[in-house]
UniProtKB/TrEMBL annotation:
Protein name per its UniProtKB record: glutaryl-CoA dehydrogenase (ETF)
Record-annotated Acyl-CoA oxidase/dehydrogenase middle domain positions: 140-230
Cofactor dependency: FAD
Reactions it catalyzes: glutaryl-CoA + oxidized [electron-transfer flavoprotein] + 2 H(+) = (2E)-butenoyl-CoA + reduced [electron-transfer flavoprotein] + CO2
EC number annotated for this UniProt entry: 1.3.8.6
Family: Belongs to the acyl-CoA dehydrogenase family.
Keywords from the UniProt entry: FAD, Flavoprotein, Oxidoreductase, Transit peptide
Pfam families, per the entry: Acyl-CoA_dh_1, Acyl-CoA_dh_M, Acyl-CoA_dh_N
Residue stretches making up the Acyl-CoA dehydrogenase/oxidase N-terminal domain: 23-136
Species of provenance: Streptomonospora nanhaiensis
PROSITE patterns listed in its UniProt record: ACYL_COA_DH_1
Length: 396
């Protein structure tokens, strides 16, 4: 017997009805973060971007903490213990406003807090994680160096033993939240291999310099960390952090957030273009009525929905414990490229208006240039996927 019921027309804002695949709890997280972002962040983000800073990062940290976003996917120690999909949805809604805001939450929870949670001693976890989850303490993650980006194993930062103490010397670069952080998780080469250290930022010899004149990720604080004879007690080392795999596992957590965040940036650009195409008139009709514009909108909605499906599938794998780091590489590689295509196309739909901060598309477009580079460049993730499908490493 045939079904005579006529399916509903697709929702332009959720074309493949992906939100129907979410649980009630996941929808609650989505709605809470989207509501907060719409009220508190979206009205201000263009001004922050124009100024090239976040005017009140500590207030923002406390607000994120009150919302339960900091380390929300971690268990215990004041953290929410949410599902991977719920955390991904939070990243999506934050990056729909601006990549810098998702980066703030990601660096705090998926890098600094995750490192302490995974590799720290109980005393370290108890001392830092509850305050970081509440937004009372801001953290940063020091891995990248001026001459060591895609090849972190070549880092020059060194930690040497001096009696029972450790002494750290080196420089870290492109560190989100570095100059406002209370604690830095710093990775250094030792005689025992690469180790992680919990470094209070008021330790003598530690300094952070803000990086200015950025053309991307401007609503975010980015810093250089300088360590000159930073003396730490023996218990500053993260005891379970041994080898390069430790910081890379934290990066994988942050990359997972990007898989979802890119969907938010793409969605924001597509929705801006859809609205603009419906209201901007040329030659006596809305530009959305022209075939060339409709083709652009079709390309964008396909990219947004493909990226959304990819994020949701990887999130479900992660919640089942079946998510390999190559899955995350697949997601970052595919979704960031999709978001970049959408942002560029949306910028074109807006014409000259697209280059102004009155519309979000150019801001997202330049932010995505940074998103494409950090937590592993497009090339690195292509090689990760290539190794997964061939069984042959082409990294060296």
């Amino acid at each position: 017997m045939s079904d005579s019921r006529r399916p509903a027309a697709p929702d332009p804002h959720d074309f493949l009805a992906l939100d129907a695949e979410l649980s009630d709890t996941e929808r609650d997280v989505r709605d809470a973060v989207r509501g907060f972002a719409s009220r508190e962040l979206l009205p201000n983000v263009a001004e922050w971007f124009d100024a090239g800073t976040l005017p009140d990062p500590r207030g923002l940290a406390r607000a994120f903490g009150d919302l339960g976003l900091l380390g929300m996917h971690l268990e215990g120690y004041g953290c929410g213990g949410s599902s991977a999909v719920a955390y991904g949805l939070a990243c999506r809604e934050l990056e729909a406003v601006d990549s810098g805001l998702r980066s703030f939450v990601s660096v705090q929870g998926s890098l600094a807090m995750a490192a302490i949670h995974k590799f720290g001693a109980e005393e370290q976890k108890g001392a830092w994680l509850p305050r970081m989850a509440a937004g009372e303490v801001v953290g940063c993650f020091g891995l990248t160096e001026p001459d060591s980006g895609s090849d972190p194993g070549s880092m020059r930062t060194r930690a040497r033993r001096d009696g029972t103490d450790w002494v750290l010397d080196g420089t870290k670069m492109w560190i989100t939240n570095g100059s406002v952080a209370d604690v830095a998780v710093v990775w250094a080469a030792t005689g025992e291999g690469i180790r992680g250290f919990v470094v209070p930022t008021d330790t003598p010899g530690f300094s952070a310099n803000v990086i200015h004149r950025k053309l991307s990720l401007r609503a975010s604080i980015t810093s250089e960390l300088v360590l000159e004879g930073v003396r730490l007690p023996a218990d500053a080392v993260l005891p379970a952090s041994k080898g390069l795999g430790a910081p890379l596992s934290c990066l994988n957590e942050a990359r997972y957030g990007i898989v979802w965040g890119a969907v938010g940036a793409a969605r924001a650009c597509y929705e801006a273009a859809l609205e603009y195409a419906a209201t901007r008139e040329q030659f006596g009709q809305p530009i959305g009525g022209f075939q060339l514009t409709q083709r652009k909108l079709a390309d964008m909605v396909v990219d947004v929905n493909h990226a959304g499906m990819t994020a949701l599938r990887i999130g479900r794998l992660k919640d089942r414990g079946d998510c390999h780091h190559n899955h995350v590489s697949f997601g970052k590689f595919a979704n960031v490229a999709a978001a970049q295509r959408v942002a560029r196309t949306a910028r074109g739909v807006h014409g000259a208006n697209g280059i102004t901060l009155e519309y979000p598309v150019m801001r997202h477009m330049v932010n995505l240039e940074t998103v494409a580079t950090y937590e592993g460049t497009e090339e690195i993730h292509a090689l990760s996927i290539g190794q997964a499908v061939t069984g042959i490493s082409a990294f060296r």
